[in-house]
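Researcher: Good morning. I'm working through a list of sequences from a screen, and I'd like to move beyond sequence-only analysis. For each chain I'm collecting a predicted structure so we can compare shapes side by side. This is the next one on the list. No need for commentary yet; just the structure.
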Amino acid sequence: MTDSDLFKFERVLNEPSVGAPAGWTIVEGSPVASAWRQHLTEGNRTISGVWSCTRGAFSVSYDKHEFCHILSGACRITRDGGEPVTLGTGDSFIVEAGFKGRWEVLTDMTKHFMFVEP
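Model: Good morning. Structure tokens for this chain:
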């Protein structure tokens, strides 16, 4: 938590937490995911930072809303029973709480993320 209502992301990151996010299960390949949490609000209702992952696929289930901006790389996200959506460098998007499906990292990627409790 910060003492300010404005937060600037730092360019130099501390040690990341390594592993799949909560609600994500590896289903293809051996992806390595790392997250640098840079900003937490009181009660952790909002969490933001940088996430990086190598190629592979996850089965995902979201209990929070997530805003993403891809800094590099590409992924394909498919809602259970839906059509795949491919996203890459420069794309921004939101995944709503309740989303269930597949998240495939097509090329090693890095993104800014922000999770918000509904």
